[in-house]
Amino acid sequence: MPPAHVLLIDCPDQTGLIHRITGVLSRHALNILKNDEFVDAETRYFFMRTEFEGDIDAAALRTELLAELPKSVNLHLNPRKRKDIVVLATKEHHCLGDLLLRYAYDELDATILAVVSNHNTLQPLVAKFGIPFHYVSHEHRDRPEHEAAIHKALAIYNPEYLVLAKYMRILTPDFIRQYPDRIINIHHSFLPAFIGANPYKQAFERGVKIIGATAHFVNADLDEGPIIDQNVIAVNHRYTAEDMAKAGKDVEKIVLAKALKTVFQDRVFIHGNKTVIF
Amino acid sequence: MPPAHVLLIDCPDQTGLIHRITGVLSRHALNILKNDEFVDAETRYFFMRTEFEGDIDAAALRTELLAELPKSVNLHLNPRKRKDIVVLATKEHHCLGDLLLRYAYDELDATILAVVSNHNTLQPLVAKFGIPFHYVSHEHRDRPEHEAAIHKALAIYNPEYLVLAKYMRILTPDFIRQYPDRIINIHHSFLPAFIGANPYKQAFERGVKIIGATAHFVNADLDEGPIIDQNVIAVNHRYTAEDMAKAGKDVEKIVLAKALKTVFQDRVFIHGNKTVIF
Amino acid sequence: MPPAHVLLIDCPDQTGLIHRITGVLSRHALNILKNDEFVDAETRYFFMRTEFEGDIDAAALRTELLAELPKSVNLHLNPRKRKDIVVLATKEHHCLGDLLLRYAYDELDATILAVVSNHNTLQPLVAKFGIPFHYVSHEHRDRPEHEAAIHKALAIYNPEYLVLAKYMRILTPDFIRQYPDRIINIHHSFLPAFIGANPYKQAFERGVKIIGATAHFVNADLDEGPIIDQNVIAVNHRYTAEDMAKAGKDVEKIVLAKALKTVFQDRVFIHGNKTVIF
Amino acid sequence: MPPAHVLLIDCPDQTGLIHRITGVLSRHALNILKNDEFVDAETRYFFMRTEFEGDIDAAALRTELLAELPKSVNLHLNPRKRKDIVVLATKEHHCLGDLLLRYAYDELDATILAVVSNHNTLQPLVAKFGIPFHYVSHEHRDRPEHEAAIHKALAIYNPEYLVLAKYMRILTPDFIRQYPDRIINIHHSFLPAFIGANPYKQAFERGVKIIGATAHFVNADLDEGPIIDQNVIAVNHRYTAEDMAKAGKDVEKIVLAKALKTVFQDRVFIHGNKTVIF
After folding, report:
1. pTM higher than 0.90, yes or no?
2. Domain spanning A83-277, CATH architecture
3. Is C65 in contact with C24 (CB distance < 8 Å)?
4. Which of B79, B221, C229, C270 is most buried, judging by how many CB atoms fall within 10 Å of its CB?
5. What's domain C5-77's superfamily in CATH?
6. CB-based contact (8 Å) between A37 and chain B?
7. Interchain CB contact of C22 with D (< 8 Å)
8. How far does Cα A12 stand from its chain's mean position?
9. Catalytic: which of D10, D109, D223, D229?
10. What ranges do the domains of chain B cover?
């Protein structure tokens, strides 16, 4: 059973915020089930996420809450529970396949509207799950043309989030700007180690004893966006770069799925280049 | 810089508790720095821990808070920050040594008043740190006599917590009852696997691929008290039972230290046979 | 590129075994790529796994090797690389789905000949991958009858291994005896903690801070067979038993897949109730 | 009981190496207890570590082995089991304290001959363990002068290894060159992430969800030497840079101790910028 209602608030900190916010909920006779707050000690920014139950007059609640809060607040009452997403992929199947399976069994908290790829390799996999597949080749197109073609494919679906499930093309700042805080990528390294191409090869050459994966929001700087989740596994001298890549796939798919879950359950705030996750 | 004030509350859940509690703090013009709440879905019990800053009239604050809360509440305002503890050990040095080092550099959030042991093996180690050492042998004493002798040694110090840092004697329910929720043990297995004696030997014989350690409060049932923290490490067929015991020592000492830190920082509630940790 | 040849030997230890074995390979001008040995200190049993390259006369090689080894040796030269398996499942899709995806992309080192289930829930999933699905209901059948029906379904395929991918029925010793060392199960706990039914509920009630999964060979004693792999994740007081079960699914599927990989790559020896894994 | 004998060999790979090496051992009627080999697929370099028991004529054994091996071999027969080390530290006590405790209980496989520091902060700690402490201040000295003074302090002891236990001064290539492959450092990050100063501050600012520590040999390039061991812990938005530094201390000390153990037990080969660890 999902929480009856979710309230997300972030704003500059003030004395008495929790009391004022919970006061509004209390006046509406709403019962708080879970409450998380955090104040960033550096920026003095306040974050709060509340799950509560009861019958609500959403408009009134929102108005009363805003009256108690600073003007520069971000307030989200009951963001749409089921997100609409489009997945971008290239040739590797492990992250996409994992998401398709979760979606097929309603464990993704999201609807995969379509899959877009610059190769047609994964078309048969996507077809098994009855989801539209758009093959948008990058061949014979320069980057702006290719991204324009992707945009066109995406425009049909109007997704809330783009999920880059091992999409191996670099997106331009222009493209990214059109999906602010709405693109989530899985990077196949423990960022900020091994930024850029071929992280497993880099890891192999550096002789590391642990490799990892990082799910993050995408912003204009490559691999520099707010990190949502990371995990690692141990490797040793017996691993070739290829062995590392193989072993890393399971970490990638689990980290991506876990990150998506927290985002889609409205448990993630973006704060500058960081995330606050409840 | 430690938090100015800490407030701990647990009671049966009611609608509006957070609002009422934060209202009292608000009326006193106190600024909340951190706030954690949890409601146990099964028992409908409410737990809250608040760190706040500002000048307080503790008596008034307490009175006003109690007026807003159910009668059966547990309320702790500013529990003593620095706990007084006595450590019980036997022959193994790794947990005790680690605690002594942390204490020597003021990283324990506690004062080690004394060490009590049923062997004198560790006396030289304790002496290095200038802490009283009580050798209370169990030889030629039955269990009640031995425990009476320990009690006598402890009575000098009146410790808030007893820390069993690889104390290898089983304590009787009678003894435990005198320190309710105040005895913390490190068990050298991933409980509830391998309860009782020789867990590494049990782990070796079972052929497990992971071993662990568990820090828990001690209650009358052996190894059954509320778990505070656990951690694990990978092992393989090359490990003898002795190798596992050696490798496990580092896990034991880190898990114990981490558990003590959360308890001594007043971040742990005991709820039946479980802990709620903020 | 898979190793050209694999040699597996286990026998009572003797002085000079490695020299004698590698001598045979040397006389055949074969080049060793990887070599692992282990001698169990308790049982004085010797295990060796060698990957080597070169043209072989398998019959001659085998004869010459046996001439150098104790009579009670187990020797496997080039076990069939691609195993034939049948997967047994019940209603949960996560382990089965993960295996089907890996199989579809040839990452399983095995051929899934069929899926057998006591429910028809997973039939549509299996159908997506074009694999035979046998619905063998346990209703209106006693256990021997049900197992006889499963046997009949399996007989068509003659699988080397049965993989219990969350198959929630207990198999009888009679059934197990027919697949000695050939049934692999994923148990949804960190064995030997929480043997038997409902381990997540048991874990929740015990208030553990870590949960796990265990892949093991199945023998006549429930959940007591040789462990192949285990892994864990952290949980806390916020997790209900249901949350633990959900979070545990990812551990289960990864542990099972990793265990199968080591078995199917002929890297696992069974030694009594333990495994030796190279 | 330590292994009776240890043999370490690395050389360019050839067909039949294991057979020839074990042949020599066999002719001497020596019984192999453990054997590890690895061939680097890129460099075609062969590494072998053997533990064996029996009475040996070391000179004869060495001569016969060398006769079977390529000229460019490195062969070590029974390296001195107990290493002589000097620890360099600055102000932080956690790694040094941990090493002193292990040394006091003979769990370090090494003798700490002395501690050298550029501050006198840790003198009282070292005094507790009765080990010489050399305070070699860097004040009023340029780097070459300071390193010359350290050299002078070290010269008394002629250590096999220098252990940098949170020594916070950068060593010059000239200094490092005098201890080739003999300086081991603990870096307080998951290298190669956060090379250089203040890694926890860097980690905090990047908003990572995992932090780590890396033990490595020191070569002329800062933080670029062969990695011996790494480990990580999870962090979240609640951690300040200072919290990360505190939490990281336990990882640092355990990773350093574990790395030293493998090196001091002669289980580590250095191969270019990587390690091969058996």
Report:
1. yes
2. 3-Layer(aba) Sandwich (3.40)
3. yes
4. C229
5. ACT domain (3.30.70.260)
6. yes
7. yes
8. 24
9. D223
10. 5-77, 83-277
H helices present in B77-182, as ranges? 94-104, 123-128, 143-155, 173-177
Q: Check residue B121 and report its DSSP letter.
A: T
Name which of B9, B19, B232 to mutate to probe chain A: the one with the most chain A Cβ atoms within 10 A of its Cβ.
Answer: B19
Question: What ipTM did this prediction achieve?
Answer: 0.94
DSSP state letters, chain A: ---SEEEEEEEE--TTHHHHHHHHHHHTTPEEEEEEEEEETTTTEEEEEEEEES---HHHHHHHHHHHS-TT-EEEES--SSEEEEEEE-S--HHHHHHHHHHHTT-SSEEEEEEEESSSTTHHHHHHTT--EEE---TT--HHHHHHHHHHHHHTT--SEEEESS--SPPPHHHHHTSTT-EEEEESSSTTTT-SS-HHHHHHHHT-SEEEEEEEE--SSTT-SPEEEEEEEE--TT--HHHHHHHHHHHHHHHHHHHHHHHHTT-EEEETTEEEE-
With contact defined as 3+ CB pairs under 8 Å, the chains touching B are: A, C, D
Question: pLDDT tens digits for chain C (278 residues)?
Answer: 545 899 999 999 998 999 999 999 999 999 898 999 999 999 999 999 999 999 999 999 999 999 999 999 999 999 888 999 999 999 999 999 999 999 999 999 999 999 999 999 999 999 999 999 999 999 999 999 999 999 999 999 999 999 999 999 999 999 999 999 999 999 999 888 888 888 999 999 999 999 999 999 998 877 889 999 999 999 999 999 999 999 999 999 999 999 999 999 999 999 999 999 99
Q: Single out the catalytic residue among B10, B98, B109, B223.
A: B223
Q: Under an 8 A CB cutoff, do B237 and C191 touch? A: no
Give CA–CA dist A44/B32, Å, rounded.
Answer: 12
Asked if C237 and B276 come within 8 Å (Cβ–Cβ), the reply is: yes
Amino acid at C222: L
- Nearest C-alpha in C relative to A278: C238
Chain D contact set for B105 (CB, 8 A): 93-94, 97
For C263, which DSSP code?
Answer: H
Chain D positions in Cβ-Cβ contact with residue A237 (cut-off 8 Å)? 38, 40, 271, 274-277
